[in-house]
Every structure is written in structure tokens, then in C-alpha cells.
């Protein structure tokens, strides 16, 4: 739909973060000339009045809600209350004030695979979301984000708010969070292996026992999917965004070791949790609804991510808990 975003005012909460920066770039590639990226110092969305002020100042036609307080298993275990409150509060205020603002043509909300039940059969289908409780280490975060789906559907039903809800699988890519206290598995393993090569270390310690499996989506592919949904999808049902390729943690660690040149031992420390046993999404709804299909092979995406990390991030690491642009 050429020119869909042209002439529209667009707000991207979290637009300065990892995923958000790619979404902003894709929007501009699709003709968006007026994209506003609010910053937390100006609009702390955990406060209702800040969300109301954002709508009053920006007057958006379209809003992408990507802002989130995120982290890996360790960060989720250390901050369950903060992760629940901040993610719940930001979404609650953005959706409610968006309805009150009245000038919003569309809202695109980004959820999380952490919302799926711990023992969901793979591939995860959107209809599985309510079939059990999420994996315990990230349940507060996952439940807070899933509640926004309920709110969006309720506001659509009662107030006619055109809010859609997308669920990306685990993301990775250039610009990811590489802090060892809060990073997800791919940047954590990349950093460990790169530093092990630099030190000449004989081993790298990995969390858990290596048996869980995950699906990963290259961040630029995800951004493309979100923009495509913004153009072409207006339904009430949640939509998965994934690559359709699953890999066991032992295989992932070995692949990253190979790509970084680490030739030592990979040691699995079972004192640390595995997280969800499996995570792989059924992305057929996304392909049917707005033509999305991931195109970046995992090896290629990892190579790009490793190159970026080695060239750009060795001197300036992200904060311990990454707040995605808000």
C-alpha cells in the first residue's frame, strides 16, 4: 500500500530502543515524514498525565507502542515487581489516553512470547495464549503485556478503538542489549564468547542444561512485519511474528562459538534456570493477514550482530535494565 504513512503523524513509543529504531527506519522507508519518538525524560508513560501530554503534544494519527522495560531471565527474576508495574502502567495509560484523545486512527501494540503458557505445544498458536500460566521466571512481565491485549480488545468493542496486537518471538540483531546483567541469550552468548577469545579463556559458562529450544527473529525482519501490519491489518485477534525456525540452546551456543572464533569448552551450569522448555511460533496468521514472512537466516543474522558488537559496543554498553526508549 504505497504512501499509506505519507502525510500522517506517527508516534513510536520506544522508538529510540532496539526494535524501535528499526521500526522508525522502516516507517521512513515507507514514506513517513512525521515520526515522533518520545523520550522518558519528557514523557514518563508510567504516569497517566505524561501519556495524556504526549497525545496533546504530538497529535498522532497512528501510534506504535513498543516502549517496555525488558531483560533476560536474570533481570526478570531480580525485578518481577518493576517489570509488571512499568509494563502494565505504560500500556494501560497509552491505550486509555489514546481512546480519550479521540484522533487516533490506529494503534499497534507489541506483546511478548513470554505471555504464552509454560507448557504450550509447539508451534505456539495465538489460540494457545490462555491455556495455562506463563513460565515462572518471566510471568509478571508476560502477564502485564498480555493484559494489554485484553484492554485493546475491550476498547475496540466498547469504544471502537482500532488497536492491533502483535507477538514477536525472541528478537536479536545489531543494537541489542549486551549487558550481562540484563541481556537475552544471544547477546549474552556473543559477549561471553568474544571476551573469552580476547582473554584466551578455555571455557564459557552457559545458563541451564542446554535442552530448551528457541525460535529467533532478526530485528529488521520484525520491524518490517510491524510496519506491514500497520498498513494492512485491522483485526482484533493477536498475531504472531516469527521465523519458523527452532534451535536447541546447545546448538545455538555452538554456532555462536564458531562464528566468534571461540574453540574452547561450552559448560552448562544447571544452577541457573532454563526458562520456558520450548518456544516456537506458528506465524501463518501473519502471512495470511498482511503477507509477512521472515527472510534473514539465523547464521546470517548472527554474523551481522557479532560484527556490530565487535565494532560498535565494546566501549559503551547499555544500562543494566534496558528501558526501550521510554
Reported by name, the CATH topology of the domain at 9-175 and 216-245 and 278-296 and 317-323 is: Rossmann fold
Oligomer: single chain
> For this structure, what is the CATH homologous superfamily of the domain at 9-175 and 216-245 and 278-296 and 317-323?
NAD(P)-binding Rossmann-like Domain
Q: Give the helix/strand class.
A: alpha/beta
Rg is: 19 Å
Q: Taking all residues together, what is the mean pLDDT?
A: 94
Order of helices and strands: EHEHEEHHEHEEHEEHEEHEEHHE
What is the annotated CATH architecture of the domain at 9-175 and 216-245 and 278-296 and 317-323? 3-Layer(aba) Sandwich
Number of strands: 14
Strand coverage percent: 15-25%
Layout: helices, strands, pairs:
Blueprint: E1 9-13, H1 18-29, E2 34-36, H2 48-58, E3 62-65, E4 69-70, H3 73-78, H4 80-101, E5 106-110, H5 139-159, E6 163-168, E7 170-172, H6 185-199, E8 203-207, E9 213-218, H7 219-232, E10 239-241, E11 246-248, H8 249-260, E12 265-269, E13 278-279, H9 284-290, H10 298-312, E14 322-323
Parallel strand pairs: 1-2, 1-3, 3-5, 5-6, 6-10, 7-9, 8-12, 9-13
Antiparallel strand pairs: 4-14, 9-11
Helix pairs in contact: 1-7, 2-4, 4-5, 6-8, 6-10, 8-10
Describe what this molecule looks like in 3D.
With 326 residues, the chain is of the alpha/beta class. It has a domain at 9-175 and 216-245 and 278-296 and 317-323: Rossmann fold, CATH 3.40.50.720. It has 10 helices and 14 strands. The protein has a 6-stranded parallel sheet, sandwiched between helices. Strands 7, 9, 11 and 13 form a 4-stranded mixed sheet that branches. The protein has a two-stranded antiparallel sheet with strand order 4-14. Helix 1 (18-29) crosses helix 7 (219-232), helix 6 (185-199) crosses helix 10 (298-312) and helix 8 crosses helix 10. The protein is globular and about 60 Å long. Residues 315-323 have low confidence and may be disordered.
